[in-house]
Amino acid sequence: MRKVDPVKHAEKRQEILDAAERCFIRDGFHGATTASICTEAGISPGHLYHYFPSKEAIIGALVDANLKRVAERFAAASAAPSGVVAALVSEVDQKKPKKTRNARLMLLDMFAEAERNPVLAEVIRKHSRGILTLTADLVRRGQDTGEIDRTLDADAVATVLMSVIDGTRLIGIRDPKLETTKTFGLVKTMIARFLAPPPT
Question: Residue 75: is its pLDDT beyond 70?
């Protein structure tokens, strides 16, 4: 039996994920078929299923990779001189669309599909739970150091922050002519003031 090279396997898996992400951004969740993902990655359908059993499994892997990146950013933030609040505020910039309008539409498409697709819905909920846990833990660290108001409930704060930050993705859809730099700056100011300890 042929032995699988774990390094090459991981590299090919990442190539497929990168190709799938390009397809999702370009064509939306429905438009990005397994066939188009295979074409983008330069592989056959049979080869794709060797790495991922379904399109939902690909989304799940992309979600896991995103959670890992967030965890790494938050871990670095805990030790950074700029502090916890700066790290939470900087998450606003992470939500700026990197691939223009299609990236925002892809996310809306996925949320809509989750209402009909229980597998995708669970993938999205898993991601949300992971982000909420990471955010609440970071808020608690900020409370321990006195950077964040200790009277705030960390779990509730995480939910509010997630809602506000995710909402920034819709700004460009609501008003394409809006000056996003100024708007995102206001969102950052709002978050910083919300987290700040009351004046002594």
Answer: yes
